[in-house]
Design a protein that fits this description.
- The structure is a single chain.
- With about 240 residues, the chain is α/β, with parallel strands linked by helices.
- Helices cover about 40% and strands about 15% of the residues.
- It has 8 helices and 7 strands.
- The longest helix is centred in the middle third of the chain and has 28 residues.
- It is globular.
- The chain starts with a strand and ends in a 7-residue tail after the last strand.
- The model has no long low-confidence stretch (mean pLDDT about 90).
Length: about 240
């Protein structure tokens, strides 16, 4: 049985990815507060910002992936605030880190024992969804930028620590993708300027990132790589 565990598949990139893996015959398990609307997805409801909530689903998660001969984990969920280095409340920073960094670490701890029981050539993978802002910064996204930079470090450490296990990892960094998160963070009047920042003059579709994640899951040669999926960012 091929199995995908993904966080944040209730909308956007996560939903598109869940649908793509379902179509490929995977059992798909989503972890999020809101349910994934794709028919056939196993829903585990948890608040990734609350460690107790994440721990509470462990038994259900174990049951959902038991028997998987190939297990793909995609850390997709993220929290983004409008904040700055001039002043960001410590509690708000911790809240972003809980979702963007701590939850992936916790879930890796839960799932790696299942991945290690699979055949070493099974193609199991841990993929992190980063951002253009994983290797650069813009004003007004302090905690998000900081956490996404750290996510690349987590991926690279994952690669080194899992050497020899047959499990591969990568960080896929989307550019400006047409999602709820982007539209919540960017004023509608600025969306044209944001679209013009890609070499194709448009926003990325969630399905394009889903296709990139599917390819990454099938490609152990990219183990430890940072893949920028941004249509060619125009730097001005």
């Amino acid at each position: 049985m091929n199995c995908l565990v993904i966080t944040g598949a209730s909308a956007g990139i996560g939903l598109a990815t869940a649908r793509r893996f379902l179509a490929a015959g995977f059992r798909v398990v989503n972890i999020s507060r809101r349910p994934c609307p794709a028919q056939g997805v196993v829903q585990l409801t948890a608040d990734l910002g609350d460690p107790a909530s994440v721990t509470a689903i462990r038994a259900s998660l174990d049951a959902a992936v038991t028997g998987a001969t190939r297990l793909v984990v995609i850390h997709n969920a993220a929290r983004m605030l409008s904040d700055t280095a001039a002043f960001t409340d410590d509690a708000a920073l911790r809240a972003v880190f809980e979702v963007n960094l701590v939850a992936p670490n916790t879930l890796n701890g839960f799932l790696l024992p299942h991945m290690r029981t699979a055949n070493a050539q099974s193609g199991s993978a841990i993929l992190y969804v980063g951002s253009t802002l994983s290797e650069k910064a813009v004003p007004g996204s302090f905690s998000y930028v900081t956490s996404k930079h750290a996510l690349i470090g987590m991926m690279r450490a994952t690669c080194q620590d899992l050497a020899g296990t047959g499990i591969h990892t990568a960080c896929i960094c989307p550019g400006f993708t047409d999602t709820e998160m982007l539209r919540d963070h960017v004023p509608s009047e600025a969306m044209g300027a944001i679209s013009a920042m890609s070499a194709f003059g448009r926003l990325i579709d969630s399905e394009e990132i889903a296709a990139t994640l599917s390819w990454a899951a099938d490609s152990p040669v990219i183990n430890g790589a940072v893949i920028h999926a941004n249509l060619g960012q125009v730097e001005r």
